[in-house]
């Protein structure tokens, strides 16, 4: 199951050339304001207000840690991370890190020892399935797939596959607020699902200063906010779950050295230790996972 990082990078290049790997944002529903905004604006840096610098703010209320609007970070601790893990989903629970990985032929669900970065329990997905985001709900682990439009439900302890369910979009990120699953598909829309039947119960348009925020990827629900990786950017959106408004940004640039970045892919993976109040972040093929503390942007 384990392969060399160089082989993974070669696989990614082949997918990019031949299989549309690169995960472009799926088209917005016809006539949607989000789709129009993405086409009309500057368009290449979704989530920025017109004329605003990166990380410009519009928001109020409490953020994770001490932030009220935009956040910067300090590294509390760095841990080893499997550089061959194409991280798609990350959850921390009772001292165990749960990680979902992607790529066709290499997708897994695993339990990881935080201190060593090694996994001690894992299940392989079928070779024709691209694993995506994960979340824990009760005694179950739920995992999405990218274009297969199929979700998997596992027993949390044994990783026994309990059931599958279908959805009609791509699958990217997944979290929950205690009552609803929250799912992203790479667009500016988040979807709410019933955690038992997996029926869609609603949706949320995510906007910043009136503009659609596309490429919403891995998700984590923290202290009443939805944190969302923006695919291909070193920042995380802080989303109000009742309105979809981006309240501020977490700038995560500079976590890896230039040498480490050379063999790594994009930032992706947010996990929150509810009991310890710790926030963890990592990325696809990253050699490290970081515990960070958020600070208000000066």
Q: What does this molecule look like?
A:
By secondary structure, this protein is mainly beta. The chain has a single domain, classed as TolB, C-terminal domain (Neuraminidase), CATH 2.120.10. The chain has three helices and 22 strands. The strands form six sheets. It has a four-stranded antiparallel beta sheet, with no helix packed on it. Strands 2-3-4-5 form a four-stranded antiparallel beta sheet, with no helix packed on it. β7 (140-145) and β8 form a beta hairpin. The longest helix is centred in the first third of the chain and has 14 residues, at 5-18. The radius of gyration is 18 Å and the shape is globular.
Brief write-up:
This protein has about 300 residues and is mainly beta. The chain contains three helices and 22 strands.
The pLDDT mean sits at 83
What characteristic shape results from the CA principal axes? globular
Q: Which secondary-structure class do the elements indicate?
A: mainly beta
Pick out the low-confidence regions. 1-22, 24-63
The biggest sheet, with number of strands, parallel, antiparallel or mixed sense and barrel status, is: 4 strands, antiparallel
Give the percentage of residues in beta strands. 35-45%
Give the key terms.
Neuraminidase, mainly beta, 3 helices, globular, 298 residues
Give the arrangement of secondary structure elements.
Blueprint lengths: L4 H14 L14 H8 L30 E10 L6 E7 L2 E6 L6 E5 L6 E6 L6 E7 L2 E6 L4 E6 L5 E6 L7 E3 L4 E4 L4 E5 L6 E6 L1 E2 L2 E2 L3 E7 L2 E6 L4 E5 L6 E6 L6 H5 L4 E7 L4 E6 L4 E9 L2
Antiparallel strand pairs: 1-22, 2-3, 3-4, 4-5, 6-7, 7-8, 8-9, 10-11, 11-12, 12-13, 14-15, 16-17, 17-18, 18-19, 20-21, 21-22
């Amino acid at each position: 199951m384990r392969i060399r990082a160089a082989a993974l990078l070669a696989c990614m290049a082949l997918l990019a050339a031949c299989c549309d790997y690169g995960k472009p944002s799926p088209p917005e529903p016809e006539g949607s304001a989000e789709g129009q905004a993405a086409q009309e604006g500057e368009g290449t840096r979704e989530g920025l207000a017109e004329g605003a610098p990166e990380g410009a703010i519009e928001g109020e209320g409490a953020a994770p840690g001490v932030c009220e609007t935009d956040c910067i970070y300090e590294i509390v601790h760095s841990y080893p991370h499997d550089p061959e893990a194409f991280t798609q989903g990350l959850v921390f629970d009772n001292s165990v890190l749960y990680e979902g990985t992607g790529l066709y032929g290499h997708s897994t669900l695993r339990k990881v020892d935080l201190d060593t970065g090694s996994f001690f329990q894992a299940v392989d997905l079928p070779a024709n399935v691209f694993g995506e985001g994960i979340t824990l709900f009760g005694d179950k682990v739920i995992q999405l797939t990218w274009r297969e439009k199929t979700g998997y439900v596992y027993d949390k302890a044994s990783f026994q596959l309990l059931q599958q369910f279908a959805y009609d979009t791509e699958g990217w990120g997944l979290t929950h607020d205690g009552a609803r699953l929250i799912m992203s598909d790479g667009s500016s829309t988040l979807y709410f699902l019933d955690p038992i039947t997996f029926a869609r119960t609603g949706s949320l348009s995510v906007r910043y200063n009136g503009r659609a925020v596309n490429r919403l990827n891995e998700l984590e629900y923290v202290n009443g906010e939805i944190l969302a990786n923006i695919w291909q950017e070193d920042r995380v959106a802080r989303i109000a779950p009742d309105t979809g408004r981006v309240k501020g940004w977490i700038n995560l640039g500079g976590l890896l050295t230039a040498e480490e970045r050379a063999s790594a892919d994009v930032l992706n993976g947010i996990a929150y230790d509810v009991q310890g109040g710790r926030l963890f972040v990592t990325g696809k093929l990253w050699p490290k996972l970081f515990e960070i503390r958020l600070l208000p942007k000066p």
